[in-house]
């Protein structure tokens, strides 16, 4: 195995563990055990230790989210419903981000400079693509709302939360559940 391949295995294992348990609950020993190496060998791949590893895999994950969301939205029909369906479908095809734990537990556990950068990157990668859909829909006259940023964040949180629905409670699929929620957002719940 080349050094690059070994590093990728370390990054993949770290990303899985951090996503599942959060920054504070994962040790370098956990990551090393997942990869099948001694924990001291991790410093060869990430000299800055656990925080450097967390920041790197989070950046990588957020870059993947931005690219995937942007591409999914661009490939959808040019209307708000189709684009939000495409965004939801893509988000649900990925591992959950657990943005609440990320914001209230992971980010406060790392250097404030890194935390600020990752917080900004999260906004740019996950909320901005959805916000752009809503703003474009507003320009086309499809929707009207005075705070599309709030709606974008709410939609993202709602869709991401579907990852946490127990399998026994999933109606048909998480994707269908997301589409039903998007329809409720767009159509409203009140009788007309």
Write a structural description.
This protein is mainly alpha-helical. It has a domain at 54-187: Tetracycline Repressor, domain 2 (Orthogonal Bundle). Helices cover 71% and strands 0% of the residues. It has nine helices and no strands. The protein has helices spanning 3-21, 28-35, 42-45, 49-75, 80-92, 99-106, 112-140, 148-161, 174-187. α1 crosses α2 (28-35). The longest helix is centred in the middle third of the chain and has 29 residues, at 112-140. The chain starts with a helix and ends in a 5-residue tail after the last helix.
Features of the shown structure:
192 residues, mainly alpha, elongated, Tetracycline Repressor, domain 2, single chain
Task: Walk me through the topology.
Layout: H1 3-21, H2 28-35, H3 42-45, H4 49-75, H5 80-92, H6 99-106, H7 112-140, H8 148-161, H9 174-187
Helix pairs in contact: 1-2, 1-4, 4-5, 4-7, 5-7, 5-9, 7-8
Short description:
Helices cover 71% and strands 0% of the residues. The chain has 192 residues and is mainly α.
- Kindly provide the name of the CATH class of one domain: Mainly Alpha
Regions with little confidence, pLDDT below 50 for 5+ residues:
none
Named at the architecture level, the CATH assignment of one domain is Orthogonal Bundle
Q: What fraction, in percent, of the residue positions are helical?
A: over 70%
The biggest beta sheet is recorded as: none
Fourth-tier CATH superfamily name of one domain: Tetracycline Repressor, domain 2
Order of secondary-structure elements: HHHHHHHHH
Q: Which class do the helix and strand fractions yield?
A: mainly alpha
Per DSSP, the total helix count is 9
Shape: elongated
